[in-house]
Amino acid sequence: MRTDFSTSFTSDMGLELAQHYIAWLPFGRAAITETIRDFAATERIKDTLGLNGSGGDAATIRAAWVDPWYPYLERTGKMIRPYLVSLCLEGYGRDRADYKHEIALAEFIHSSSLILDDIVDDSMYRRGGPSAHQMVGVLAAGAAGSAWLNVGFEIVWRDRDLLGARVANRIIEELAWEHFVTGLGTTLDVTWPWAGGDHLPGEYLQQILHRSASYTYRLPLKIGGLSAGVPDSEVATLGKLGEQIGLAFQIIDDILNVDSSDAHWGKEKAEDLAQGKINLQVILALERGNEEQKERLSQILAKRTTDTQELSEAVSILKETGAIEECRKIASSLQADALSLIDSLSINETNKRRLRELTDYILRRSR
Amino acid sequence: MSQQLRNRYRSLADAALEYWMPRICTQEWLLTVAGPTRFQWDLETLQAGLLDPLYEFAAARPERLRPILTAAVLESAGLDPSQYSSLLAAIELQFLADVMVKDFYNGKTLATATPTSARRPLSVTATSAYTARQFAPTLAAGHSPNLKTDDRSWLAYRFGRVLILAGVGATVSHLRWNRDHKLMNDESYVEHLRGFASPLTFEICIDCAIAALGVRERAEFVALQRAASVIGVAYQAALEANNWNQDLKLHNADPKVERSYLTHAAVQDGKVKDLRAREPQAFVQIARRELLAAERISLAAPAQIRETLFAFAGELIDPLLNKFAGVAHAH
C-alpha cells in the first residue's frame, strides 16, 4: 500500500491532533494492509470465502474480488474513518493493535461505498484515477464493491473470540442495520432527480442522515465503541455524535459548493446547482422565496445548466432568501451539539480533546 | 409436497414479504425496520424508488421457491414456519435482488447498461436491489426474536456471506469466461456453481433452519447444508439445460447480451471442447451426478428433514430433467 501521501492537509488541524494523527498513519495503513493479507491474500482467500474444494483458482478469485476495489484503498490519504475507530479504542483504554481488523473495516466500508456512489453518479474519476466501473465495467465494479461492503460480517464473525460473543453480535447487528438504512437514504438520493416533486427540509435531513452520515462518521464511531466493549447507552451517544458530524459536514459541503471563497476548494463552483441537485439550501430557498425567485430557481435547476450567469443568479437567490445563512446556523447548531456530546462521553480526556479537534477540523473544511 | 401444502407455504412466503417489505410505504413500517425517525421520511419517494421496482420483480417471479423450501424444512423439524416470517422474507428478498441485478448486463456506465424493463432509471432499480439484498442480514440480526442471539448473528453473517459470494462470483465469471475465455468443463462449471451460486440457491434455506433450531455446529446439520448446496448446483444445471435453446436464440439475436455465462459465444469462438458448445445433455448429466452426490453427502442428516429436502428437489428438478429423451428419473 502507498506510504507517500502528503500530510499538508494536517496544517489545518490543531498541533497536538496533527502530531498524533501523523504518528498514527503508518499504523492505520499497516492495519489495512494486514487485514487484506489476513482475509484476501491469494493463499488465504479461498478459506476466507469458504471455497475450499470449489470456486476455481485462487488467483482469479483474488483478481475478481480485490483488484477492482484495491485502487480506492491505494489512493486514500486521510483515513479519517479508521482514525475515528482508533481514537475510540484508545479513548476507552484499549490497545489499538488488538483491533486492526475492526480499524481497517471502517475504511473498507467507506471505499466500497465510494465505488457504488461512483457508479450511480457515473463519476469518471476518483482521487486522481479512473473510477472502478471505468476500469472493469459496472457489473464487475458493483459486484466487487458490494462484496467488500459486506466483508465486515466475515471479519467480525472470525474475530468472535477476540471481541467476545456479545460485542461481535452487537457489531454484526449494527453493520446489518447501517447497510440497510444507507440503502434507504441512497434510494431517496437517486430517486429525487427522477421522481421530481417538492421536498421538505426534514426529508433532506433524513436522507443525508442515512446516506452521508452513516458510513462516514456514525458507523466508525459505533465500531470503535462496540469493539471497546462499552455499554449500549455509550454506543448510542457515539452514534448520535456521528450523525451530528455527518449532517453538519454535508450541509457545509453543500454551502461550499456554491459559496466557497477558498481558492483551494476542489470542486467546480455551483456544481450541485448545475446538476439540479435538491439540497437543504435549495429547499429553504424554494420555501422562503417570493414567486419570482421560486420560479426562477426551479427553472435554473431543471435546465441542468453550466451557464455561469444563470448559476450566479441561482446562487444569488439562495443568498437573498436567507437560505444559505439558515443552513450555516443549522450546521453551527449541529456542531455545537456534537461538541457537547463529546463532553458527555466516558472517553479519557486526551482522546476527548482529540475528538473535539477532529470534529472542528472536519467541519471547518478550509481545504 | 401436496399442492395444498405448497400453497400454504407460498401464502406464508407472500405474507412474510408483504409484512417485512410492504407494497405500500408507511411510517409504521419504517419505524419497525429503521427505528425512530429523527426527521421526516419521504414516503412517496421510497414508494417509487424502492417498493415499486421490487414488487414488479416479485410479481414477475412468484414461485417463492426458497421460502417454500425453508418453510417446509422448518415444519419437518417440528417448528411453526409462520413464527419465522423474517427469515422467509429475507431469503426471498435476496433472491429477488439477485434477479434484479442480473437483469442488466455489463456496460461501462449505468447509462449503457440496459435493463429489460427500462421505465425507470437503472440507478433507481439498482439501488432498490441493493437495499432489498442488504435487508436480509438485518432481518436475521434484528428481527428474529425466536432465534437465540448467537444464532441471529451467525445467520446474519451467513446472509452477508451470500452477498460476498454473489458479488465475487459475478466478477469471477466475467473474468474467467468472458475476458480470459477459459475453457469451461464439467469440473470448472460445477466448482464455480458450488462456490458462488449454491449459497444463495438452497444452502441459505438450510442455514435459516439451522439457526432456528440452534444446531449450527452439529455434524448432521452441516451434512444437510452441504447437500442443499449440491442440490442447488443440480438445479442450476437443470435450468441451464432447459433454457439452452432459448438462451442461445436470445444470445444469437444480440451477442452483447450475456444471458448466462453458458450462452457465451463458445461456438463462435470455435472452442468446441468447451462445455458451452456441447448439447444441453451435458448439463442433464451434471445435474444427475450432483443429485447423487447430495444423497451420499446427506446420509447422516436427520431423516425427516432430509426427506423433505429431497422431496422438494425431486419435484423441482425431475420435471426439468425428464424433458430430455432417454433420460431416466433422477430418483
Q: How would you describe this structure to a colleague?
A:
The complex is a heterodimer of chains A (367) and B (331). Chain A has 367 residues and is mainly α. Chain A has helices spanning 15-40, 45-48, 58-65, 70-74, 80-91, 100-121, 132-136, 138-149, 151-158, 160-163, 165-195, 201-209, 214-227, 232-259, 271-274, 280-288, 291-303, 308-320, 323-344, 349-364; strands at 125-126, 129-130. In chain A, strands 1-2 form a two-stranded antiparallel sheet. In chain A, a hairpin with a 2-residue loop joins strand 1 and strand 2. With 331 residues, chain B is mainly alpha-helical. Chain B is built from 12 helices and no strands. Chain B has helices spanning 3-20, 27-34, 43-60, 65-76, 85-102, 122-142, 149-179, 186-213, 219-253, 266-269, 281-297, 303-322. In chain B, helix 1 (3-20) crosses helix 5 (85-102) and helix 7 packs antiparallel against helix 8 (186-213). Chain B starts with a helix and ends in a 9-residue tail after the last helix. Mean pLDDT of chain B is 86; it is low at 258-268 and 327-331. Chains A and B meet through helix 3, helix 6, helix 7, helix 8 and helix 9 of A and helix 2, helix 3, helix 6, helix 7 and helix 8 of B.
Q: How would you summarize the topology of this molecule?
A:
The complex is a heterodimer of chains A (367) and B (331).
Chain A: H1 15-40, H2 45-48, H3 58-65, H4 70-74, H5 80-91, H6 100-121, E1 125-126, E2 129-130, H7 132-136, H8 138-149, H9 151-158, H10 160-163, H11 165-195, H12 201-209, H13 214-227, H14 232-259, H15 271-274, H16 280-288, H17 291-303, H18 308-320, H19 323-344, H20 349-364
Antiparallel strand pairs in A: 1-2
Helix pairs in contact in A: 1-6, 5-6, 5-13, 5-20, 6-8, 6-9, 6-13, 9-11, 11-12, 11-13, 13-14, 14-19, 16-17, 16-19, 17-18, 19-20
Chain B: H1 3-20, H2 27-34, H3 43-60, H4 65-76, H5 85-102, H6 122-142, H7 149-179, H8 186-213, H9 219-253, H10 266-269, H11 281-297, H12 303-322
